[in-house]
Write a structure and sequence with these properties.
206 residues; alpha/beta; TIM Barrel; 8-stranded parallel beta barrel; 9 helices; 8 strands; 38% helix
Length: 206
Amino acid sequence: MSASIAGLYAITDARLPRRVGLEQAVAAALRGGARIIQYRDKSTDSARRLAEATALSVLCASAKALFIVNDDVPLAKAVGADGVHVGQSDAQVTQARGQLGEGAIIGVSCYGDLERAQAAANAGADYLAFGSVYPSPTKPQAATVPLSIFAQARAFTDLPLVAIGGINADNIATVRAAGADAIAVVDAVFGADDIEQACVTLGRAL
């Protein structure tokens, strides 16, 4: 399954203002060519989150795209997601694997930390994410990471490498050329006036 971690990886963000509803926004991203959708919502409204994640899981399945849940292993399991993405303070890889099974995709935020990346790879992660590769409007406090990190990571792992942070149509090709297999985008997709066209444009730039 980890071999499917490639191309445009669109991440929702409940804090980001949108002109359309979440399902409509994700459907547009899928039509535009997003191959992976990550549902990210840190709120405590568990009923709404369950309903939204369930709907997005169905959408992604119908589009033959992967559906990943951010930071919530029980939610990922409940909605039959393809996997989960964990960060520094989230569930560990082995814990997530134990709850979701061997077939699940488990991605790990490694920021700019190659030791964390190597440990995650050794623990059985399916992909490693690095960033912010550019200043991020979504996470302005995030430290930036040099693009050389992808070549450094490739030296010790064959796992798919994901880039995130401040990526748009002007710089996405540069990030891909640096060695990222998948390009994770938040604002350049879901902050766009025309989400479908934004994904088409990003895909062409790739």
